[in-house]
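Tutorial handout. Part one gives the primary structure; part two gives the three-dimensional structure as tokens.
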Amino acid sequence: MSLGSRPSHAGSLASAGAVSATGAAITKVLVGLIQPALDFLARFLGLGGLATRIKTVLHGIQARIDGLIAKLVDRLAGVVKSLAAGHGRGSSPAPGHTPVSGHGDPAHDARVHAGVQELVTLDQPYAKEGIKKVQAEAIAARVHKEHPVFKSISVVDGGDTWNYEYVASTGYVKGDKQRELEEDLAKAHAAFGTTLFSWHDLGLCLRVSESTATRRINQWKGRAEGESGKLYTLASSLSDAGTLYSFDKGKAGQREVSPGNRNKYGFKNPDKSSSVGLQILSKGLRPDSPPPIEKTSATYHKTKARYDSMRPGSTYKEGVS
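Part two.
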């Protein structure tokens, strides 16, 4: 498969080669002009052999001159490529990509730009179906190997995309949506349809941890209204531990609480031996309980205390029939 950044890079090398050849030709012409002029001057002054000796010296330094010209051409090619990338057609960064930060070296910036473009090109085939993390990591490894300007390229979680974070000049490339996210969504749809389910149910369905199940729920809840996979909640409050979820908007809303379903809706009584539980029990503590009355002692409440019901409307009193 051809790589997106290769044609422009190869074009730069071809241009550099052409300019380099031109420079060599210019050097050859200059040497050719100097030699006859020196030969005429030597004969006029009666200095035989001078032109031959100078010709030998010129040929000796020609290789070094060619090398200097080649370096200059490479430098100019890098500058031209950088300017073309910044001002030419297609210079605007792709949506979701941070622009390549200037490094102060046009040639360096051009190499970074080429690597970023290859990341985008290799990631593009996955735009429709999504990309798995292992596939994104393979792309990152390939670009890192072929573009040594990058110190590192890491695949990072972008919420619903796998992004490429690189170290050379600071920046990242936004990748495609996480394929695992869509695969999990399909599994959840197949398992639950329009019924209600909890985060625990989702974790068992997907065989993932609590944190991953919760992350998937938040990702699906965060989708736009009308978007495929939008998830809705049924809860009595924001902190409802028994919150349920559904892909059916009609199942969402506010849940009512009644004395018989407090636990179902996330309201739980504190443990009776806890400090809060002992405070609640002490509200119904009868004054004729065996002394000394120890309101903060769990043992006293379990073995000695006597109570009257504090439930509104109740007439129950312990020991009274």
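Part three, for discussion. Residues 1-20, 84-93 have pLDDT under 50 and may be disordered. The two ends are 90 Å apart (CA to CA).
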